[in-house]
Amino acid sequence: MDGEDDPTSGSSVNVSASPAEVGRLAATVARLREQVRQAQADADGRALLEMAKGVLMERLRLSPVEAARQLVELAQAAGISQLQLAADIVNQAARDQFTDAARDFLDRVASEDRPAADAEAGESLAVQLRTAESGVLAASDAQAVACSLLEHALTPLGATAVAIWTNDQGGALRLAGYAGFPEQEALRWHYVPPGVSTPARRALATREAVWFEELAATGLPSVAHQLMPRGGRVAVPAEAQGRIQGVLEICWPGAPIPQQPAVRRQIEALAELAAHTLGTLPAAAGTDHVTAAAGCGTQLAELADSLLDAALVLRAELDTDGRLMDFRILHANPRFTDPAGRPRSAVTGALLLEAYPLAAEEHGLFDKVAHVHATGEPFSTAGMAFTAVVGQVQVPTTIDVSIIRHGQDVLLIWRFADEAARLAHLLQHAQRLVRIGGFEEDHTTGRIMWSDQLYALYGLPLTAPAVPLEQLAALAHPDDTAAISRFLRTVLHHRRPGAVALRLQRLDGIVRHIRVVAEPVLDIDHRLVGVRGAYQDISAQHWTEVALAATRDQLAYSEQQTAERNRLAKQLQQAIMPPAHGPIDAPDLEIAVRYRPAEDDSLVGGDWYDATMLPTKQLLLSIGDVAGHGIEAATGMVALRNALRGLATTGAGPAQLLTWLNLVAHHLTEQVTATAICALFDPETRVLKWARAGHMPPVLIRGEQATTVPLVQGLLLGAISETTYEEGEIQLQHDDVLLLYTDGLIERRDRSLQESLNQLLATAASRAGGSLDQRLDHLLTHSSSDTDDDTCVIGVRLSSLSGQPLPDPALA
């Protein structure tokens, strides 16, 4: 066969070959196929013979050679083939569905008047079934199993195709093996998603075999339904160990053979073989179900722990015959809630019907779990009836349920829609938490009912007699007698609901503040037949109200004191920086000042400014900001401002003045810290000498450009006792404007200080014309500050208006 192509393999045939060569090639391929089929049949037959030899070896204690010789001699003596004898021996040893199927078929043949052909068919049935079984047991995957079933067991029944479906996760179907239809058709139907109605899906839903005389009449799609439109189908659940592994679907070109017991037994036996295949062998696509199922418990437990509802991981418990008995609770998630109030550790490891015996009610929770375990179809419903056992009492309730299967395990998720099972338990805890006790008095029988919490409020044991409502005044404080009398008259005589607060004097000497609420119980003739109501311990609330009243008084006093301090601080600040100022004699120099207080009176700060002519004919300019707000900041500001004025009369320069002022701040005040600028202007030289103590740099406007003056070094006032300050000089020119300001003009919470300075320079340069007062008003109007802090601004402009008086902005 070297150099020849197999026409069935998809390779192309040489189109130049003669018809005789093509014929020889086709004959060779057919012969090889027959040889392969015969080899497979011989292998299946040898497997059946080996099974029979094994039985003889075990039963008769023979060696392998003796068992083979015994099999030959028995077949010759019986006048049958060795395969038929091997099938009978295996049937007698196994006593399973294959044995029953063969016996039913033989019984039917023997009862009919066709002994020759049908008897021979009956005798061959056992061989066919056992040959199919041996082929399945020797198969390596589900595809080989499907081919063996079709060839040895289904073709004699007239079937032309078979499909083995595996029950995949989430209710989907996957084609694990097939025979009798093209590969392209199998590829089209390799996966059927959940919700698609097919014959296999019907078999899963009903959990029994479904027979269709003609598939086209049902309108159900399935594999090869277009290739065999008038053919019949049988879909049988493949069940093993109480769990449906998949479905065996058999196709006939016409209607299926009649549903006789022998045929049904045979098909059910084949479905059991398919279930064995799906449970142990890989599918054609290579899916390893055994490996996937091994870790299902751990995976489901992790999934259950991530859920917000109560969830249980269940695993089937089977009897010795592989039938489902119950489900073992492998895991309960942390959100597990039990209707009887048990912790999850109490149910973990128990059987489902042991933990919840009434779940076995017909069409109840157990049936739903068993159906999902068998079919793999997810189940979800709301308002499912469920009966819980609390103590010895059956309590009906409803639950929302979701059930899914994953491998060999089942995940049960529930949510109690009706909390009736735990209502009494929750009510008891609620009464304890809010210290409420209920009561009811029956005036016709004289019976009084108290809740356990009411006994606790009275400080009485549960065996003590209940106190009637009319005797309430005897146990109350004497000052509450009048209020109790009005309360009893309202409820008992006027027959209206009422309430009263009283001080209950218990027998153990403890006094509790109690609130009693009651309403009358009337019959149909509006006669008083009883009273019901509740007691509430309001002692904690009473003492809380007393404490709150004292706190409110204290807060009111503190607010009054704070308002007074703010008023004094504001008056002090206004006294230092009054709104009107007198003139000041400063040749060739124009001065303007602005002060904007904080809108909130409680934020009165320590900003100050000063402009005064010294005996040396120099002009002192100063501006500063004391840290903090309130009366402390205002008094600190007064101390530093006045100290600087006194120190300036010595004739020292700005750097020396700040050095001395730092000593004052550090030693002679109550831990005051402040920023400041001190400047001295000499009218003759028009030079401004200045020093700074941590303050923001002045702004110089020259022409249409605004810039900050280069910084000189200097630490803020009061930080340390010994420090020195650097001194700088500014040579003012005609129409130069110098601005000194505090941080209330520019500071913002959402931007850096440098960004705020850039914004100030842009605003100052945009107002090139106008008077100095207009410039300062423009700055305040367009200020972007959002800290609601005090703001001081000093503007100085050098002009040629010599001899004209200038206002003094800061005479205090």
What does this structure look like?
The protein is an alpha+beta fold and about 800 residues long. It has 4 domains: about 140-285, GAF domain (Beta-Lactamase); about 295-420, Beta-Lactamase (2-Layer Sandwich); about 435-535, Beta-Lactamase, CATH 3.30.450.20; about 575-805, Phosphatase 2c, domain 1 (4-Layer Sandwich). It contains 23 helices and 28 strands. Strands 3-2-1-6-5-4 form a 6-stranded antiparallel β-sheet. The protein has a 5-stranded antiparallel β-sheet with strand order 8-7-11-10-9, with helices on both faces. Helix 1 (about 20-60) crosses helix 5. It is elongated. Residues about 1-15, about 105-125, about 285-295, about 580-585 and about 800-810 have low confidence and may be disordered. InterPro entries: ANTAR, Bact_Sigma-Reg, CheY-like_superfamily, GAF-like_dom_sf, PAS-assoc_C, PAS-like_dom_sf, PPM-type-like_dom_sf, PPM-type_phosphatase-like_dom. This is SpoIIE family protein phosphatase.
Report the end-to-end length measured between terminal Cα atoms.
Answer: 124 Å
Count of DSSP strands: 28
Q: How would you name the oligomeric state of the polypeptide chains in this document?
A: single chain
Largest sheet: 6 strands, antiparallel
**Tertiary shape:** elongated
What is the CATH first-level class name of the largest domain?
Answer: Alpha Beta
Q: What is the assigned CATH homologous superfamily of the largest domain? A: PPM-type phosphatase domain
**Structural domain count:** 4
Going across the major beta sheet, what is the strand order?
3-2-1-6-5-4
Mean model confidence by pLDDT? 77
Helix content: 25-40%
Discrete helix count: 23
Under CATH, the topology of the largest domain can be stated as Phosphatase 2c, domain 1
Radius of gyration: 52 Å
CATH architecture of the largest domain: 4-Layer Sandwich
The amount of beta strand, in percent, is 25-35%
What structural class is derived from the secondary structure elements?
A: alpha+beta
Uncertain spans: 1-15, 105-123, 284-296, 578-583, 801-812
Organism: Streptomyces silvisoli
Domain ANTAR: 29-90
Domain PAC: 498-550
Pfam families: ANTAR (PF03861), SpoIIE (PF07228)
